[in-house]
Every structure is written in C-alpha cells, then in structure tokens.
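Appendix B, example 12.
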Amino acid sequence: MASGGQTPKFYFYDYALVALLKRQPDAAAVLTGQMGGPLLEGWVVTEAVKVFMALGRKTDLYFWRSHDGLEVDLLIVIDGKLQPVEIKLTAIPGTGHVEPLNRFLAVAGDEASGQGLLVCRIEKERALPN
C-alpha cells in the first residue's frame, strides 16, 4: 500500500498464519494481545483490497502519515475524493479516536470527502462528536 511519505506498509493476507507464527492459542488471544490492533487494521485493509479486486477496479488505497507522526490508517479514493478511515480495536470509541480524521480533513481540504470513518468493535453504528 502506498503512502503520502516514504515508508510503505505491508499487510499479511493470511491472519491464521500470523496467529500461528506468533503462537497465539485462539482468536480471542490474538485480539486481546499486543498484535490485536495491527491485525485488525490489516484485516480491514485486506478486506478493502478484496472489494476493489471483486469489482475489477484499481486498488486506490493509501495511508497518510504527517511529518509530526499523525497517521490515518486508510485512505480510499472514491469518486476522486479521499475517504479517511481510522481503525481502532476499541469497543468504546471517543473523541480522541477521531482526532487524526479531523486533522486530516482540515489538511486535505477539498481533496477529501466531507467526513471520516472510524472502524472499531461496536455493535451498532453511531455518530461520534467532531
């Protein structure tokens, strides 16, 4: 996956293999362990790749990292606009989780969609404060 900077990110498509290599006993251990957040992020990104591939479209997926270390996990190009997506393992999202999205939207201006998307472990979709 490309980035706005110089350092690309790499993701495994086979998370069972990652769990095996990390000697995790089951799925719950993977999510609650040190690798839970990165594995969720990788899973979301690879699912997005699969959707683009199934539609026969070019995979327009990126991530963004500013010079001061701010990062947005996933940028999806939709109709020429950047849709920022932040991916968090939390089941209790708060305003701090959307701060990278808000900062990216401010920097990107008209090149970004109107709002960001936070992917996390909640049971029902709901709006978060800006």
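Helices lie at 15-21, 27-32, 36-54, 95-108. The chain has four helices and five strands.
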